[in-house]
Design a protein that fits this description.
It is a single chain. This protein is mostly helical. Helix content is 56%, strand content 10%. The N and C termini lie far apart (57 Å). The mean pLDDT is 93.
């Protein structure tokens, strides 16, 4: 219901399209019955539901043209961030700690617990991203810079250890 409210708000306020693309085959049925089918009739014409699983290349092609990616699973969000696209992670506590990575790279304002956060709060954040899009793009870029810096530092440790054992 909360995700449906976010989609409805987005479509009604911006007029922009939404793609519902489940991250796994098992989620496809629920994306249709629990999300798309429950949307108001005036919103559905602006929403595309993908009912087949897609490759990572197809996903990246779509995310490269996306305004913002909202998701409950982190995989699509990671791919979108790598392309400089702002994200909202509406994670479930059932997914454990993996959502914390967004907090760890400076995106805690875009990380929500779907079970305890209201749709209004997520809508407010999404509209802030929309209204301040250049800043949101920069925030996504800076988060990926944190990732690049941490990768570089970890590879320096590996190089040092490899030298010690050579």
């Amino acid at each position: 219901a909360k995700t449906g409210a976010v989609i409805t708000n987005w479509v009604r306020k911006t007029g922009q399209k939404v793609l519902i693309a489940p991250e796994s085959v098992k989620e496809t049925k629920y994306g249709r019955t629990m999300l798309y089918d429950t949307l108001p009739d005036d919103v559905k014409p602006r929403v595309v539901f993908r009912d087949t699983f897609w490759s990572a290349d197809e996903a990246m092609s779509v995310y490269a043209r996306a305004h913002t990616v909202y998701g409950m699973e982190p995989h699509s969000l990671i791919m979108a961030l790598a392309l400089g696209v702002p994200v909202i992670h509406a994670r479930s506590i059932w997914h454990g700690r993996k959502g914390w990575m967004f907090r760890d790279i400076g995106l805690n304002e875009w990380l929500f617990d779907i079970n305890t956060t209201s749709a209004d709060t997520m809508n407010t954040t999404l509209m802030q991203i929309h209204q301040n899009y250049p800043q949101a793009k920069e925030k996504a870029r800076m988060a990926m810079q944190v990732v690049a810096d941490r990768q570089k530092a970890s590879m320096q440790v590996v190089r040092k250890l490899v030298k010690l054992t050579s």
